[in-house]
Amino acid sequence: MANYDVIIIGSGPGGYVCAIRCAQLGLKTAVVEGRDTLGGTCLNVGCIPSKALLHATHMLHEAEHNFAAMGLKGKSPSVDWKQMLSYKEETIGTNTKGIEFLFKKNKIDWLKGWGSIPAAGQVKVGDDVHEAKTIIIASGSDVAQLKGVDIDEKTVVSSTGALELGKVPKKMVVIGAGVIGLELGSVYKRLGAEVTVVEFLDVITPGMDGEVQKTFQKLLKKQGLEFVMGAAVQGVDVKGGKATVTYKMRSDDSEHTLDADTVLVATGRRPYTDGLGLDALGVEMSERGQIKTDGHYKTSVDGIYAIGDCIDGPMLAHKAEDEGMACAEGIAGQKPHVNYDVIPGVIYTHPEVANVGKTEEQLKDEGRAYKVGKFSFMGNGRAKANFAGDGFVKILADKATDRILGAHIIGPMAGDLIHEICVAMEFGAAAEDLARTCHAHPTYSEAVREAALACGDGPIHS
Ligand code: FAD
Ligand code: NAI
Hints:
The chain is α/β, with parallel strands linked by helices. It has 3 domains: about 5-145 and about 270-340, FAD/NAD(P)-binding domain (3-Layer(bba) Sandwich), CATH 3.50.50.60; about 155-265, 3-Layer(bba) Sandwich (FAD/NAD(P)-binding domain), CATH 3.50.50; about 345-455, Enolase-like, domain 1 (2-Layer Sandwich). It contains 14 helices and 22 strands. It has helices at about 15-25, 40-45, 45-65, 80-105, 160, 180-190, 210-220, 280, 315-330, 360-365, 380-385, 415-425, 430-435, 445-455, and strands at about 5-10, 30-35, 110, 115-120, 120-125, 130-135, 140-145, 155, 170-175, 195-200, 225-230, 230-240, 240-250, 255-260, 260-265, 270, 305, 345, 350-355, 370-375, 390-400, 405-410. Strands 1, 2, 3, 4, 5, 6 and 17 form a 7-stranded mixed beta sheet that branches. Helix 1 runs parallel beside helix 9 (about 315-330). The longest helix is centred in the N-terminal third of the chain and has 25 residues, at about 80-105. It is globular, with a radius of gyration of 23 Å. The mean pLDDT is about 95. The site of 1,4-dihydronicotinamide adenine dinucleotide has 26 residues, from helix 6, strand 10, strand 12 and strand 18.
């Protein structure tokens, strides 16, 4: 069959970006994808569909809660769930077709089907064996199973099922107060479901800055989400399309139950490498099922590389994309670099939550001397006008050098605002550099400048 310089397995953000960069660098490239459409988890059942539903339901929330106060009177919109799902499907379609267009434009072959690696230098798809100098595994991740819980994608759903429920449930139990649980829990809360989130730990969104965790949970509670914290789910029973969730409180071992029409299991994802034949090839794996790679994405087998969710690091689309570009450039002889200290994370609830770099807890653990500059969106004119005064920007800077070490934002457009701090950190900037940069008025980004000012002589508007 055909010979390629590079064959990439998987067309998610890692795989498709890697393929485009390979092609731009003059490498003859093919991508193997088993789904019917390109784009991986992110475009088909992840980032894009979830953001479409978050956007639509946020519009509903605005209409129900803030329109009248702005003088926009009349009946609130009613929900046509079927139409909302079609809007989501159309959004997926335009995005996945966009990748197909980019493949054609860059002369990348799509080898349709599920691939395996019979030997280094060979990729088997169906009955065809293709040859490649380099193979890159970008096979992504899948839902992690929870002991005692069978996901049927009807009553007990993963994020995939939750993106296409037949109807909006009256009662939903979400297992796990992580990113998926809170984003999709917010969607169904806004659509009128009673949503209870059951979380194993005593805090939501583990790993996030503690102050943000507290404010975030308080704001979600204000929106009507209920939380059962410190609770270990034991199992879910389904009878006649209704579910009963049993959980044990970790503090006193007491057992409790919750009834639900739909249970969303959102307790993490696992690297997906099934069917690739990595065992037989002798590719080294970590205990958590990730493909082990060196700093250049090389696996333990010559000529085989791996990127994205199936290797170590945060399971984020932009992390996979950056690895895809760097991997391609490395193969083409360049010297690329991914700065893992400056990878932002965003939760697309309302308000949004975004972070980059160190949390205050991490700095304390490391025994570092740091200062905190904080500014509330209540002091930002634009936010007040837009009913978006909840939340704050928090910048952590080195006490001696003023260099920015981390930033945490909860508030309007946090997912966009974080990037000026990412750029500043990439350039090794001090908080004062941000504070002395003129920011247009009235913008939300003035809150970032004020937080930077708060690292020095103090903010102006608080
Ligand atoms: P994937 O996107 O998982 O793609 C892997 C592809 O490989 C799949 O299409 C799969 O079919 C294919 N494949 C696997 N094995 C084979 C094989 N043997 N042969 C052929 N094809 C194969 N991240 C963000 O940064 N922002 C978000 O807003 C966000 N939202 C999310 C929402 C949800 C509900 C979920 C589930 C995830 C979300 N993520 C988000 C995470 C994001 O989707 C992943 O981090 C990202 O998709 C990883 O990209 P990847 O290329 O490594 O793998
Ligand atoms: P997660 O790791 O973010 O959260 C899982 C939560 O479930 C944790 O809080 C954990 O303590 C809890 N948990 C685990 N076992 C439990 C149990 N038995 N009972 C109760 N709670 C339990 O995982 P999630 O939300 O499934 O997301 C998976 C991945 O997808 C994340 O790594 C994230 O990076 C990615 N993602 C990113 C998004 C974004 O960037 N906006 C959106 C959605 C997903």
